[in-house]
Amino acid sequence: MKTIAPIAAVLVAACTTIAPSAYGQAPAYAGPLFDTHLHYNQEAWDGNTGPYPPAEALARIQRNNVKAIIANSRPNAGTQTLAAARETRAAGVTVVPFVRLYRNRDDYTNWFRDETIYEMVQTELARGTASGPYRGLGEFHLYDSADANGPVAKKLIALAEQRKLAVLAHVDDVAIDLLMANAPSKGQALRLIWAHTGIGGPPVERVQALLERYPLLMGELSYRPGLTCEGGRLCPEWRALILKYPGRFMVGSDTWVNQRWSAYDETMRGYRTWLGDLPADVAQRIAWGNAAALFDLR
Ligand SMILES: [Zn+2]
Q1: Over the stretch 137-181, which tens digit does the pLDDT of each residue have?
Q2: Which residues, at least 6 apart from 270, have a Cβ–Cβ distance to it below 8 Å?
């Protein structure tokens, strides 16, 4: 911007900047949460053994008033287990199942070119879960953005758009453009949930440009660098971004290792703290409403 801002605009900007002190003591958000990034991996519970059998996992979910989860797991048996568990129904938790692209650790760095992954996805989609059909693919990772153009990555993105499946992608901002370019709609109709909204911390201006370019791009906020400031409150630039795009952000636990299960209460408490920095209607959307709308939950 090259023009000199009028005094009024400067004053408004100044007030916005000092606002944190005004909302710093805001009460925590107390409503329901939708955990949009939950893994139930083999080391948590393999069907016979592990520290977090369904009763343990569901107890954590339930006591944090998490009413719905995007569930995915390495391998997919974990999601199948959660989707079928009597404890899930008893806890009143809705499972939104995603097909994970990983059978094992080796698949993390090879899925985008491995035809057997494509076959595995087809088999899972045909099979569905006890909580209904799969609603998405992922989480998947791209450690090198260029792998978004791998042959299997391209096929999976096209499949996701055609079947109206969401995609949970742990990728950088460059890969967002590449994945979107591979969608039949060129990104206008692909429901892409950006895990961590860029774990490398691209600037908010870049995040905003991507939100503008792709109407169905959603940002999931676990581990997001720069999101929270002193006392776990929202940093001003992130508060401004969320207020500008209240329909585009969601929260998740990312239980990628068992330590995240043991810290589940703390993670959710952290979300509730900064959600309290937002107007009540916006907090409700980030915590629950945006994801509920995406998957047609009441
Ligand atoms: Zn994850």
Answers
A1: 999 999 999 999 999 999 999 999 999 999 999 999 999 999 999
A2: 228, 232
Å from CA of 10 to ligand 1 middle: 41
Ligand 1 geometric centre to CA of 196 (Å):
9
**Beta strand 249-250 pairing with 94-99:** unpaired
Residue 216 has pLDDT above 80, yes or no: yes
pLDDT in tens, 55-73: 999 999 999 999 999 999 9
Q: Return d(Cα 266, Cα 278) in angstroms, integer.
A: 20
CB 193 within 8 A of CB 220: yes
| CA 280 to ligand 1 centroid distance, Å | 28
State how far the Cα of 141 lies from the Cα of 247, in Å rounded to an integer: 24
For residue 72, the CA-to-ligand 1 centroid distance in Å is 9
Q: Which amino acid is at 106?
A: D
Q: Percent of the chain beyond pLDDT 70?
A: 92
Please tell me the distance between residue 139's alpha carbon and the centre of ligand 1 in angstroms: 6
What are the pLDDT digits (tens) for 217-255?
Answer: 999 999 999 999 999 999 999 999 999 999 999 999 999
Cβ(91)–Cβ(137) below 8 Å: no
CA of 35 to the centre of ligand 1 (A): 12
Cα 214 to ligand 1 centroid, rounded to whole Å = 22
